[in-house]
């Protein structure tokens, strides 16, 4: 490792708490000194952790693509020709590729990105991925005091024509929602036999009951965010344990806003059982467990939350490819709609800000059970 790369690796260490540094050395080789300085500046500006992770991931991909496609790091500002080349390399027609090998991403560029672990999909990118990476490219350009040709009519036209040429059906992040009946099947695989069962039961119940929390919120949950509340009495007078979760700043909240959601009853019991068994009295709530049953001191990676969902789906005899961690979020609102819970009440717990997005789950539930779907 050269001195320059070693210095960049040390600088990346200073922001490791908010960046995906599991590939620190690779990032240090790929990113330029100016890239690292831009990321450190964004950390100091208080940019959200998830936004920073997305920016870093896309910046690393863009730098890798630029090196493979042009032999040079990304230029700042980006010329229009380079932006159009990026679109041409990522939005292409598989049918035309069969008759024209030069259509789409060149073979040598494709191979370089795959060898570096940056490209995994077999076909072209989705339009959403291309737009997101262009948007993040534009954002990073602005933070560096550069403009670029991101608003050029030619670029907008190229994207529009590429999408029209290869239409794709929009798919949800999770093909199927983890509704109450599905969740019950997943929980049935958690038999309380070991720490992993206790952890997974608590994770699934907390993620769902707290409004369908995002996997990053579940993985990053800390004991200090939990506050014991007064028991809640139900109709028969039985007191149920209750606690509040202070989410702090989330994807949809303001910078200074502390989002709070509540847990009552079974999810609280499951969480307390895990915390007691794992002897966790501070720090990360959900942690990795090694093969010998030792509980790590570090938080689960957000990807591990998705892996846990898929593992439990497989054990329940369902198809893992049809479910993901996001299914807990969509499943919460879908289940609320099925049970007739008013949309505003469900949104208070899910912390959705877009009524349009939340309403889609309610509309789907209403249409499935409505008279229009039962004419015969």
From TrEMBL:
Keyword Membrane: no
Segments crossing the lipid bilayer: none
GO molecular function, one term: DNA binding
Residue stretches in coiled coil: none
Domain Tyr recombinase: 173-375
GO biological process: chromosome segregation; DNA integration; DNA recombination
Protein keywords: Chromosome partition, DNA integration, DNA recombination, DNA-binding
Keyword Chloroplast annotated: no
InterPro entries: DNA_brk_join_enz (IPR011010), Integrase-like_cat_sf (IPR013762), Integrase_catalytic (IPR002104), Integrase_recombinase_N (IPR010998), Tyrosine_recombinase_XerCD (IPR050090)
Renumbered residue ranges of the record's region Disordered: 345-376
Protein name, as recorded: Tyrosine-type recombinase/integrase
Organism (species): Rhizobium fredii (Sinorhizobium fredii)
